Amino acid sequence: MTTITLPPQPRPVPLLTCQPGAVRDCGGDLLAASAQIDDLGTFVAGDARIGDWTGRGSERYHETIAPIGRRADSMSLALRSVATRVDAHADELQRLLDRRTDLEERRSHLAGEVARLRGEIATATEDDAAALQAECDRVRREVEAYETDLTTWSSDLAAEETAMVQAFQRVQEAEAVERIWGGVVDPADAALATKPGSGASPGEVSTWWDSLTYVQQQAIITAAPGAIGNLDGIPAGTRNAANTVALDRDLANWTHTESLGVLTEDERTWLENARAADEARRNIADRVDPVTGEPIETQVYLYDPAAFDGDGAIAISAGNLDTADNVAVVVPGFGTDAESAGYQADRAATIYESTRYLDPDASNATMFWIGYDAPDNAPWDEGFDGAGVATESMATAGGEHLADTIDGLRESRDGEPAHLTAVGHSYGSTTTGHAAHDQGMEVDEIVFVGSPGVGGDTNDAGDTGIDPEHVWAGANSRDPIADLGNHGWVHGETLFGAGLGDDPAEDDFGGNRFEAESETRGGAFSFGDHSKYFDHDTESLYNISQIVNGNYDAVEHADHVYDPWHDGVQDPEHDRDPTTPATR
Amino acid sequence: MTDSSALEGQRERARAAAAVLVTGVVDALGGSASRTTGRVEGCESASEDEFRTFRYTATGRVDVGASASPPFLDALVPVLEAAGFADPIPGERPGGNTLEGSDGDLTATLSELPGQGAYVLLSVEGPCLEVPEADRRDWQRRTDPEPFL
Amino acid sequence: MEVVPLSVGVASQRWDDQHLDLDAAAGQVGGAGTDGFTRAVSGAASRFLTQWQRHAETLGTDSEARADGLRVVIQDYVSSDEAAGIDLFLLSTYVTEQR
């Protein structure tokens, strides 16, 4: 009887209990703290010096503060280095977890193979022996390869753990910090000295950033997040890293000051805006990509809690702005400021979900952009008279900011340019119209929804500078704001005083109108219908998503509003039964 | 309008049902589950900064075992039925297929996207519920990071 | 006695701000979680965070000492017979710590 040698059982994969996300959060806390310590060094070298104070007292003071500055500089560099190492550790832990999952699957498969062979051998005849031994040898080789990979995995894990522990221990004591980092020049200093001045184009900024070394770039993110976090031309991933440092630092500072009861009025306003930004990024990160089931990537593209006299400026993306095939920038309107960020983030995430759901093969990013000073006097709060106070001045200024933002998004990307869509809602459509007409905003598609008018100088789709085939309008027939724009020969501003330009859903305008009725629309004009354009399973979200994805054939077109000389404004959509196309 | 307790109840039931389903999918197809979390989502907007109605959605992903062969949904009808989601209905979604069942006011959807990878996505959600106006901001801000499984 | 300009008072407030911010940073370091690390690393992480919380607090205390020191200078000056000028009233507002 021939003896057949079975392959050995594969060893089980050891457990790996860790949470890379929590490790990354720990690194983020350390990075934000290092930025704060860096600020002390900057303060000592700058504002702490009292130039108009002379005499012995002044000399003693300046002698005393100098060592504090040096200590702050070395400590910030030391803490930054550990924070960066912790972040890399989180990445490595995730890779080790992924490798462990693969190993576990291989072990399970091989264990099944060994069991199968054992069963076959038990019932085998002499004639089967040679073939079975060959099969056993094949599986043995697979088990040996698995064992080698398992050993490598275990030693990689041990090496990574040792390196992380050493990074913590290396600069644990103040003496070690001084010995290793004392007198070391911050790589951020020389790099910032070459930064282009204010007024530089996004292209010049991009060229400068690309000229820096990786070490210099990382140093600036921590040491001077405010210098690049909101700078057009800097890649979105970098802006996110810098703004995350700034946001985490601000939250820690102002929350601590609040707990002591000494928060100033300005700081209270800024803290509320910082909290809104925090809520917004969490709202997006808590949701999952409908194609992968993984959390949606979030990028804080703009964070300035003190902008616009305390209204604040925040723009956060669902999806990766640097790499997405399709990028949408959503411009909100009446009544929005930084405190609306949480809700606007939900909108951005909803559009992201819908675009991904409708085209799983395309990658997407959708950013809400509270980057201009929008009118506070919302019509639903103050009636049409209140809205009438709104003029185009804020849209004109906002349009300039928006066009700069679009330029920055274009300029900072490597590789293929994105298919870029600007979606202007409410007064945001007026702002978007100005960005296109006044500034030549370089987008592929313009979508106006719930528009009270797209600016006085934009008389038709061609005036946007975009091919009219790529100018789109969605208007719910019950939305009173969408009815504010100029129609035919009757100009709206003479009736309501709004004066925000033409209705882009009208036939004379010459753009594409898409279906945007809501199943829950009211019987007559209702402000509630002004806010439903981005809700799931609505005609408008479905069509906006198809436009963002460039799937023009899938867009459901609607007949235009028209205004015959012998009668009032007519909306053919008024009597059509709304549908609920799936967007999730 | 319902009070907020109805939405709390929906959350509890959706998470419990999703936990049963994820376990059943892993039992049927092997592999491992991940991202087993849920969240409150706004449904119908009320204005420029809040929603009028909300629902709870529990989601998860199962990367199927090496021995499972597509289409994976074929093996999951009994899993849905055993979890109380009777008479599951097959359907389509862009790039993939779905299997959907109802249990009372909860809807469970399993989906696979053959072009994307060997995994099954799962969601369990309830209907949109109106909450008192004073509670809207709280529901909007609520996070629920704890995995249900 | 040497003249103490108004800018000394402004600097004292800025040192107070640094003290507040560094205390916040210390809290941030101390509050950073170590649950995500493996057992082999979490102990070293905890020790590091505890130690660095103290480092940041020390910097904050040093900042507060600088603010207090400047306030003593202001106090001595406004109490002296030699102090004069329109800035005196404004300077005296910095004698008390605002926050």
Question: How many domain units of chain A?
Answer: 3
Give me the Rg of chain C, rounded.
Answer: 20 Å
Largest sheet of chain C: none
Secondary structure tally, helices of chain A? 16
Q: How many domains make up the 3D coordinates of chain C?
A: 1
Question: Tally the helices of chain C: what do you get?
Answer: 3
Biggest interface and residues each: A-C, 63 and 49 residues
| Helical amount of chain A | 40-55%
The termini of chain C sit apart by 29 Å
Quaternary form = heterotrimer
User: Total strand count of chain C, please?
Assistant: 0
Strand arrangement across the biggest beta sheet of chain A: 1-2-4-3-5-6-7-8
3D shape of chain C: rod-shaped
Q: What sequence of helices (H) and strands (E) makes up the elements of chain C?
A: HHH
Shape of chain A: flat
Content of β-strand of chain A:
5-15%
Give the N-to-C terminal Cα separation of chain A.
64 Å
Helix-and-strand structural type of chain C: mainly alpha
Features:
heterotrimer, A: 584 residues, alpha/beta, Rossmann fold, 8-stranded mixed β-sheet, 16 helices, 8 strands, 8% strand, C: 99 residues, mainly alpha, 0% strand
